[in-house]
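User: Can you predict the 3D structure for this chain?
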Amino acid sequence: MINEKVSWAVYAMNMLIFIYFVVLYGERLQSLIRSVKDSEVRLYDSAFNAFVYSVSIVSMIAAAVFLAGWNREFFAGLFDRSAALYGRIDYGRLSIAAGILLFSGMVHTEHTVPAIQFASYGALIAAMALKIVTAHSGGDNMFMRWFSFAYLTAFSMAIPVMYRVQIKAAPAFHIIEAAVMAALVVSFMLMMRQLFMGNGANLFYTAPIVIAAIGDAVIIAMRWKEKVNTFVLIFIVIAVIMYCVGKILSQKMLNEA
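Assistant: Here is the predicted structure, written as structure tokens:
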């Protein structure tokens, strides 16, 4: 029907994705501006600073270009609940844009405000939950959709944020951490895309969790004497356990199908 409207829950999902972009982009922008204005901060005085600031800047620019160039219906959907309009919103592309911007949040720059970053991540996670609620009101796979969502959330929390370290092998540590972070952000982006495209009942892929488990273990071990990253340690353990349970359950459901 011409005047058909999407539900308020679908509209809220769209709005939460928008909040993620605005809040994280705003936090990253204020960090960059304050760093430039801070006389004690030099954006390119070290290899670490050069990397994290470059990643942050490129990520912000690329996300903005990708959103403006290929996701215009998404912005229109903030002001209109038209079902025809929402039918043209490509949530696969939106997921890619969200992943591109996430790179900027995974590198610690001066004047970072973690609480604001977590608020943006919370909005994105809430949007994923609403996607499950609005797209699948029932069915045999409902439990697995929620379990996959919970696993994906734990997985996202196990992605290490790049901080400057003072250990002897700092250069090697930063290179390893950058590689692990990049691989896990891409993995999260692809699984999130699958969820938003309506295929999130089985996100238990082997490669991402193996990279996460090995990569996080190496990072935590290398920095153990300086500081134990308890947050990443807790969530990688949870993610591995949930992966094992989810893999068994998904195989069982496949055999019964």
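The chain has a mean pLDDT of 94. Residues 105 and 117 are 7 Å apart (CA to CA).
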